[in-house]
Amino acid sequence: MDKKFIQFPKDFLWGASISAWQAEGNNYNSDFEKYFKAGKAANHYEMYEQDFDILQKLNLNAFRTSIEWSRIEPEEGKFNEKEIEHYRKYFSSLKKRGIKIFATLWHFSNPLWIEKIGGWENSKTIFYFKRFAEKMCFEFSNFVDFWITLNEPVVYVSKGDVFGEWPPFKKNFLLGISVISRMLYTHKIIYNHLKKCNYKVPIGISENLAYIKPKNKYNILDWFAFYFADYFYNKYFFSKIGVRMDFLGVNYYFSADISFPNKYEQIGEKESDLGWKIHPKGLYYVLKYVKKFNLPVYITENGVADKEDKIREWYIKEHLFWAHRAMQEGVNLKGYIHWALIDNIEFKEGKNARFGLVEVDYENNFKRKIRDSAYFYSKIVKEGGFYYP
Q1: Spatial separation of the C-alpha atoms in residues 3 and 5, rounded to whole Å
Q2: Torsion-angle region of residue 90: left (phi > 0), alpha (psi -120 to 50) or beta?
Q3: Lowest CB count within 10 Å: 10, 231, 310, 318, which one?
């Protein structure tokens, strides 16, 4: 079979990502730290210069990170100027390397004092988060190229309020609907205030989208379960935002068959270390879905837990192939940000989920080692594409 070169635009953004709680370490004022114990995590807080050197070595021109609310505001109304200065140096280090910054204001983790008042179940959290967001815009808008207000709010609510696996460990679907509605309202408010702060910086949201379908297309009950799951997981949040987005952030990891009443089975030909089945074509389907919003789209997360680096090259190549196919069919895809730059802490899985392009040796002073798949990705970036198949 003849190989074809899959060419991406010259202005396409190629990046990698982390989140603060999962990578920085010592975020002891976070509710997630209370339950999941990241400890020093990947020590990114102290080693960010080395990590950014690697980012540059890999030819990447974009980086997605988050600002840890619990670090900046460890007590209600008391902003830690030392930590603000840390992030100022952090962002400055990226800018001097010419790297575009995607800054996420909230990536699951909340300050402990927010947890004490009931977290996102309490409407006061909207006011407190708005105040935090305004402060961050005032401090960092000259550095940030893209603001992401919230990361995967539907995942957060599903895990925390519906299935009881994350804080606040509730199992109440109606509560979940209430919380997701509150977070939706929060995004709208934050969007307006960030625009007042600096109207030039694009504002979006990162949402985890899954390609799902009824397990038995001839079973009306499976269709009912599919419509319910697809609406709540994929469509509800975006459908309610309206015009308050300048771009869409798509996080994609899996596809699934849905059967009545609420059973799902992941589909795919290979598996990650976590047992997640991998279905690259599902990315094509979710990108085609978001085309209707007529906005620039960035893949803000896509990656695989693969400690031995056996399938990550295949994973990257296949997902990029289907992303490119979606672009050919009119999706305004502007960038791909791989999850993650470095190994970091997953929530229940801890250090066992190795998503990094760069290996972290937790037993040897957090030594970094660039994986072969990272060089493969770097070659794609340098050449602006790859040969397929």
Answers
A1: 7
A2: alpha
A3: 10
Contact 117, 124 (CB under 8 A): yes
> Three-state SS for 36?
helix
DSSP structure string for 233-272: IIIHHHHHHTT--SEEEEE---EEEEETTTEEEEE-SEE-
Q: What is the CATH number of the domain that holds 318?
A: 3.20.20.80
Please tell me the distance from the alpha carbon of residue 257 to that of residue 334, in angstroms, as a whole number: 29
* Domain of 254, in residue numbers: 4-388
pLDDT band at 1 (very low <50, low <70, confident <90, very high): confident
How many helices, marked H, and strands, marked E, lie in the chain?
14, 17
For range 242-266, the mean pLDDT: 95
How remote is the C-alpha of 35 from its chain's centroid?
21
pLDDT score, position 239: 85
Q: Quick count: other Cβ atoms within 10 Å of Cβ 260? A: 17
Longest Cα pair distance anywhere in the chain, in angstroms? Answer: 63
Nearest to 178 by CA among 108, 226, 123: 123
CB 222 within 8 A of CB 260: yes
Chain segment 257-271, per-residue pLDDT in tens: 999 998 999 999 899
Band of pLDDT at residue 144, cut at 50, 70 and 90: very high
Q: Which amino acid is at 123?
A: S
Question: With the CA atoms of 66, 157, 252 and 369 taken in that order, what torsion angle do they form, in degrees rounded to the nearest 10?
Answer: 40
* DSSP H or E segment with residue 91: helix 81-96
Q: Residue 324 has which token pair?
A: 């490119």
Burial class of residue 223, CB neighbours in 10 A (0-12, 13-18, 19+): middle
The 3 state secondary structure assigned to 163-192 is: CCCCCCCCCCHHHHHHHHHHHHHHHHHHHH
Phi, psi of 236 (to 5 degrees): -60, -50
Strand duo 277-278 + 270-271: pairing: antiparallel
